[in-house]
Amino acid sequence: MTIYTTIAIRDMIDHSKEVYDALLQTDLPLARAKVSRIVARDTQNLDEAEIIRACVESVAESLVDGIAAPLFYAVFGGPSWAMFYRSINTLDSLFGYKDDRYRKFGSFPAKIDDLANYLPARVTSYILVFSSMILGYNFKNSLYILHRDGRKHPSPNSGLTEAAVAGALEIQLGGTNFYNGIRNVKPKLGDAKKEFRTEQILQVNKLVLLSSILTAGFYMFIYSTCVWFWEEWKFRN
To answer: Superkingdom of this entry's organism (predicted)?
Structure first.
């Protein structure tokens, strides 16, 4: 139960599905309200394409700090490590913003959070590529965009999963967002081979769900292998 509280996959999938349902009803005000629950950007003036982009970006980004990293620390460190990671991530969410109010205090949790997510983000980004192959998405393009654009993002970690998703779905993420009325331009990830469509929300959900399962399995395999070798070494010595 303790480990379960550190993993946020179900809520993100549910919220993104609510955005999808609102778009199916062509209810843009409702879709804006729903997507505002999972993004920090201003949503009151977003059109349908921007709502879809916001939703896809948020789900892709959440794969690291909401799923992959907590699983990593839970498997290799147990519940206490998973809870410690979640506390770091929460501090970063609350104070890790580069504004005048929290600049000095917020820089420390932001850097620690980046460090804590470093390895899980890189493992998961390649698992995303593998998942896109299983699901029949463009896995070759996913790998290409991951290598080409993954490091363009201001975050050293979330840009990797966003780039892998952008490549798999053949869309372009990033661009102009507004936060409290202030314009913010982020690097563009991927190529706009396809226009934004509502079904891409379901596609990214499938990618994240499958990648979560494969990530958990990969961690367990590595952990079990290490334990087996350790026990063999102790037995022979």
So the answer is: Bacteria
Q: What are the structure tokens assigned to 218, written together?
A: 């990969």
- Average pLDDT (197-203) is 97
Q: How far apart are CA 192 and CA 143, in angstroms?
A: 16
Task: Write a three-state SS string for the chain.
Answer: CCCHHHCCHHHHHHHHHHHHHHHHCCCHHHHHHHHCCCCCCCCCCCCHHHHHHHHHHHHHHHHHHHHHHHHHHHHHHCHHHHHHHHHHHHHHHHHCCCCCCCHHHHHHHHHHHHHHHHHHHHHHHHHHHHHHHHCCCCHHHHHHHHHHHCCCCCCCCHHHHHHHHHHHHCCCEEEEEEECCEEEEEEEECCCCCCCCCHHHHHHHHHHHHHHHHHHHHHHHHHHHHHHHHHHHHHHC
- Tens of pLDDT, residue by residue over 55-110, are 999 999 989 988 899 999 999 998 888 888 888 877 766 655 555 555 555 567 77
Surface-to-core class of residue 183, CB atoms within 10 Å of its CB (0-12 exposed, 13-18 middle, 19+ buried): exposed
How far, in Å, CA of 28 to CA of 41, rounded?
Answer: 16
Q: What is the largest CA-CA distance in the chain?
A: 68
Which amino acid belongs to residue 37?
Answer: R
Nearest to residue 146, comparing CAs of 173, 119, 181?
173
Mean local confidence (pLDDT), 205-211: 95
How much is the pTM?
0.90
